[in-house]
Model the fold of this input.
Amino acid sequence: MASASSWSRKRLYNSSYTTTEWTQLNSVYGFKITSKSNDNSIFLPAAGYHYDTSLNNAGSYGGYWSRSLGTGYSRYAYYLNFYSGNIDWSSYYRYYGQSVRPVRCQ
Done:
């Protein structure tokens, strides 16, 4: 059985549950992800990423860390990433400068 975090992260961009749209909101490019079950949506800005001292690909790339560490290699963590029209789930070194979207438990 998949963990709750694995289930929810896959559901976030699974076309069976959501629609995704590369769009612009208030002059900021990013991905809008909308639930098919209740029409709730979230906008994730294409904030780019930091590597060393440089900000890269702002406006065309977004990466958002999850709380899940990489399987078998604790230096990695999973993140949702998108580049223009594509969205995917991946893992990479945790020192990489991706965005974080805080979520408050209800």
